[in-house]
Each structure stands twice: as structure tokens, then as C-alpha cells.
Amino acid sequence: MIGKTERYVAITGGVGGAKLCLGLAHNLNAEQATFVVNIGDDFEHLGLHISPDLDTLTYTLAGVSNPELGWGRQGETWNCITALAEIGGDDWFNLGDKDLAIHLRRTEMLKSGLTLTEVTEKLTRSFSIEHKVLPVSDDRVRTIAHTEIGSLDFQHYFVREKCVPPVRGFDFEGCARAQLTSQVQAAFGDPDLAGIIICPSNPFVSIDPMLAIPSLVGALRKSQVPVVAITPIVGGEAVKGPTAKIMKELDIPVTALAVAEHYSGLIDGFIVDQQDSVLTKGISKLGIETIVAQTVMVTLPDRVKLAGETIEFLRRLRRGRQYRKCGQ
Amino acid sequence: MIGKTERYVAITGGVGGAKLCLGLAHNLNAEQATFVVNIGDDFEHLGLHISPDLDTLTYTLAGVSNPELGWGRQGETWNCITALAEIGGDDWFNLGDKDLAIHLRRTEMLKSGLTLTEVTEKLTRSFSIEHKVLPVSDDRVRTIAHTEIGSLDFQHYFVREKCVPPVRGFDFEGCARAQLTSQVQAAFGDPDLAGIIICPSNPFVSIDPMLAIPSLVGALRKSQVPVVAITPIVGGEAVKGPTAKIMKELDIPVTALAVAEHYSGLIDGFIVDQQDSVLTKGISKLGIETIVAQTVMVTLPDRVKLAGETIEFLRRLRRGRQYRKCGQ
């Protein structure tokens, strides 16, 4: 049972993170869970403001996401993008007909003067989502991939070039000046905050754009609650997407240990997959409490279970005061 | 047979005019026919620049128009607008999924700095249309309907309110300052110009926004070729749309004669429907040469035939020099 006044913040990117957030939403009511979402892969395309991670989380929480594709909406059609290609328009970013609605609506509301936070609140409410979904910032942050064929806007690297060009590093344009929104600040400063979760998203392109915002790192460090990350790497491979390829190209071993090292100093706990239980010892040496769980979430019960174990882990760390904040 | 160097300009609105333009395109090659199109019902909606008359003509010439609806594309789906309504977006202007492509592409190209004329050329080429389709101006002209419930942007009156509020008159915002494009000027100034056609579009909301541009009236008056209009009113009713309702509300008799009177001073010839042959005498009294034809175009052969008769009428007026310009 989770105490009424226990509140949690989850920091998330798209697909893998969204699965865990759905599990959290099944464990925690709307007052108890807040989702802080990456905006580094937002972009303007065809005159539309597209927020891929916000959309994936919205569709996932609303139960309308496309499980085959891993992005977009279920029961989707592609008549607009097909017609657009026929008249010479860009079709490298595949926009479904239903999916287009959220981009049109977001763009319209942003143009009317609403902030991305306000727009996201309206959009998630319109999908009957009760939990708070917060873009990490209302300022512009844009992930740039430095690759062997040059520096590319994130979606050009990720979707247009399909992550093929070897990557040398990432920059997050605007991160130094970006401010957390008052809503995100309030979530981290909530006296009832009981734990912070870094979702199993790509650390380098989904979580790092948020950690690159100085006040987010500040909020994590200041907060008097444990921080737990869940590995996106299982058995030396990424559960989904190009995380493993990117790690190889950045000369980082493709292991959960390397992910834990990446977050070292920010997290108190780490969850590795049961396939990687051998790594717990090495991660513990970093001063990070580690537990083993089934982190590969295929079914909804998988997501609910992992989310429950994550909350339980945070409670244990809190009870035992076995976390970084207490040693300082 | 039409001489190689005979060129014609047709001034047109949407549906009815587009049908005649298709007929003209079957009679005249790309060098011989230029279509000058109303932009008074263009509007910005959902962040998109929508040009209903340009689109209707484009789809009609491309053979992809929706014959049941009278607007939009054939084989259309409505998944985006349905999804948009579900999340609180405006759905009073029904945008099909395929149709959305042209609005996205136009908006994107306009934002990139192209003129509406340049955008229209690219769009019509992408639909393999060889004939010149020219917006009458690259300046902003917007039809305003003054109704009993207030002054409304044209699409709000026409589509959202379905022309229900009785109309007292129309204004064409921006018309006084609007310039004809150099392409439109060139078409009217072409030494090989052999005739000008005012298509059977709604005179008050499709043709008048163009005639309200001073330099268009100037070009018509200066040109040394006959001008012929085709009635959109047959047997006291509009062939399509709200023309008859609007005429009643403006206290204008719903007759082809009243349309001829409306154009009086600008046209040399008028084509009435065979149902209205009794009106020819009255129209002739206005100093307008009048012929009778089947103006209701149901099939493609109907369109080709009426267009051929229109061209023949213009040739006869030219040969006989039986037109206004010669009397001056």
C-alpha cells in the first residue's frame, strides 16, 4: 500500500520510459505521480510543433498508442503523408492522420500564446489523462547529434538518417539558459515527495537533455529523497531503439553498469534486469544500491509490476535512509 | 479549331467555375488558357493557409476532386479531423486527410518566403497540371459577410454558419490596396489574348472579390478583347450553392438577367441557359450580346461543350468586332 501523501516524480523520455510511466499510473493516483518529460527531440516540421516524447507518453497513458510501431497511434492511417509525398512534401517523418491532430492542436495553442506546459495539460486532459504530464521546460532545448556526416538536428539523425551515421556526441542547444517550469519546480520541491525515478529511456538522448538543464540537476541534488534509475540496457543490448549502437559509438561499454556509472552521483538506487544480476556487485561499488527485477516490459502487468517494485525500492531506501542525501 | 496564338483568360471562383475551367483545359492547351482565381475566401485555420478556390480548381483540373461533396478530394478519409474534434479542436471546417497535405505544403512554402503565385505553380505542377493557375493577387484580400448576426469572415459565414444568417452585403478587406501579380498582368496584357471569360461562379462572393481590385477592372477595361460571362443562375435557381439565397437577401431578383446587369459595363457577351432563352431579349437591351447554351454541366462532355461554345462566342464577337471595346 502506498501512503496517500507519498508522491513520486518520474523523469522520462519516449517509448521505454512511457511503459514504466503507465505502470506507475496504475500504482499511483493523479496526486501521487508526476511525469517530467524530455523536450530535446521536439522539432518544427511542416509548420507543426512536434513533441515526440510528450506524444508517446500521452498516447501510452491514454491507451491509444501503437504497440507494433512503438510510436504514434493505434488504428492509424497514412493518407495525408502519402498525399504530401505525392506533391513533393517531406515524408521522412511519418505522420499518421490521427497523430496529425495533436500536432495541429499543439501548434495552434502555442501560437495563441499558451506555454508548452499549458498546452500539454489541455492535451492530456482531452485524452482523459489525470496524471500530470509536464514538459521539463517551456524554454527551447534541442538535441543536436554530432555525427560523422556532420551535426544534425535530433530528428534528422534519429528518423531521417535512421541513426546510421556514427555519432561522436550530443549537444543540447538552449539547455544552459533553460529554466524548469514552476510546475516542475513545485513537483521536486513538494514536501510530500517520496522519491524520484529516472525511467528506462535512452540516457544519452532522452534523459541527458533534461540533466543538461542546470536547475534540474540542482533540484535532484537538493531534494531530500532517493533517486532510482532503471536500466534501459539488458544483457548487453538495448531493450528498444539505438541506445546500444550509440553507446558503442561513444566508446561506452554496452552494459547496465555503464548506465549506472553514467548516472553516478545523481542516483541512490539502480534496477538491473534479472539477466544482469551478475552486475549488481560492480554497481554497488559505485555506492549505488542495486536490485534485480524483470525490466523488460512486454505486457501491462509487466509494467505495473516493475513500477510497483521501483516504488517499493524507493520506500526501502527512504526507510533505511540508505541514500546519498543522508551521507552528505 | 482554335488558332495557336489565340489565348484566353478565365476568371473563376470554386466549384461552378472550376467545371468550366476543366472544359476550357480540354479545348485549349497550356499556352492558350490561364485561370485567374479568387483568393477572397482564403483563410488561416488551425495554423494552415487554406485557399478553397485554388484547391477546388487544382483538384478539378487534376481529376481528383470529390464529385459527391463538390469540394475536397475523392476517396477521402476524415481521421485527422475526427481525432482533432476528440481533443477539443475546431472541426467546423471539414478537412480531409488527403486534402490536409495541400494546406500543409502551401503553408510551409509560404512560410519559407514563396509568394502564393509561386506556391500555386509548384502545387499545380505537382498535380501534373500544365495550365497556368494564378491567384489574382499575392496580397491579402478577405471577403467579409455582413449578416444579421454581425460581420463574419467568409468561411465562418459560408461553412461554419452554413450561410444561414441573412446577408446584407459583402466587403473585400484589402482589395483597394491589392495588386494584380505580374503574371496576371502579363496574361491580360498578352498581345495574343483573344478573350476573357467570367466563369459561372457566384458573382457576389467569388467574382466580386476580384473585381474589387481596381487594377483588375482596369485590366478588363483596357484589354482590346471581348469579355463573356456565363450565368450561374438557371431557371431562377443557383446551379449550386447559396447564390440564389444571397441574391434574395440582397434584394436582387434571382435571374440570369440580374447577373448580366451586375456585370454590365464590363462584359460584351453573356451566356444564359437554354431554360432561360426568354431572357436574351432583356439582356440584349443592356447592350450585351447574348447566346443560349446548356450551362448546367453534369458530365465532362457538358463542360467541354460549354467551354467550346464560350470560345466560339468570343471568336464571333471578336470577328464581328461586336463588342464594347470597339464602340469606345
Write the layout of secondary structure elements.
2 copies of one chain form a homodimer.
Chain A: E1 7-12, H1 15-27, E2 33-37, E3 43-45, E4 48-50, H2 52-62, H3 79-86, H4 97-111, H5 116-126, E5 132-135, E6 142-147, E7 150-153, H6 154-160, E8 167-173, H7 182-189, E9 193-198, H8 203-211, H9 214-222, E10 227-230, E11 233-234, E12 237-238, H10 243-249, H11 256-263, E13 269-273, H12 280-284, E14 289-293, H13 300-320, H14 324-327
What does this structure look like?
The structure is a homodimer of 328-residue chains. By secondary structure, chain A is of the alpha/beta class. Chain A has a single domain, classed as CofD-like domains (Rossmann fold, 3-Layer(aba) Sandwich). Chain A is built from 14 helices and 14 strands. Chain A has a 7-stranded parallel β-sheet, with helices on both faces. Chain A has a 3-stranded antiparallel β-sheet with strand order 7-6-8. In chain A, helix 1 packs parallel to helix 2, helix 1 crosses helix 13 and helix 4 packs across helix 5. Chain A is globular. Chain A starts with 6 loop residues before the first strand and ends with a helix. The mean pLDDT of chain A is 94. At the A-B interface, helix 3, helix 4 and helix 5 of A face helix 3, helix 4 and helix 5 of B.
Overall radius of gyration of chain A? 19 Å
Please tell me the CATH architecture of chain A by its name.
Answer: 3-Layer(aba) Sandwich
According to CATH, what is the topology of chain A? Rossmann fold
Low-confidence stretches of chain A: none
Query: Biggest sheet of chain A, strands in spatial order?
Result: 5-2-1-9-10-13-14
| Oligomeric state of the chains in view | homodimer
Q: What is the class of chain A in the CATH system?
A: Alpha Beta
Largest interface, chains and sizes: A-B, 32 and 32 residues
CATH homologous superfamily classification of chain A = CofD-like domains
Strand fraction band of chain A?
15-25%
The N- to C-terminal Cα distance of chain A equals 30 Å
Mind summarizing the main beta sheet of chain A?
7 strands, parallel
Give the SSE string of chain A: EHEEEHHHHEEEHEHEHHEEEHHEHEHH
Count of runs of 4 or more consecutive helical residues of chain A: 14
Which structural category do the helix and sheet elements of chain A fall into?
Answer: alpha/beta
Q: What number is the mean pLDDT of chain A?
A: 94
Described by the principal axes of the CA atoms, the overall outline of chain A is globular
Q: How many structural domains can be distinguished in the coordinates of chain A?
A: 1
The share of residues in helices of chain A is 40-55%
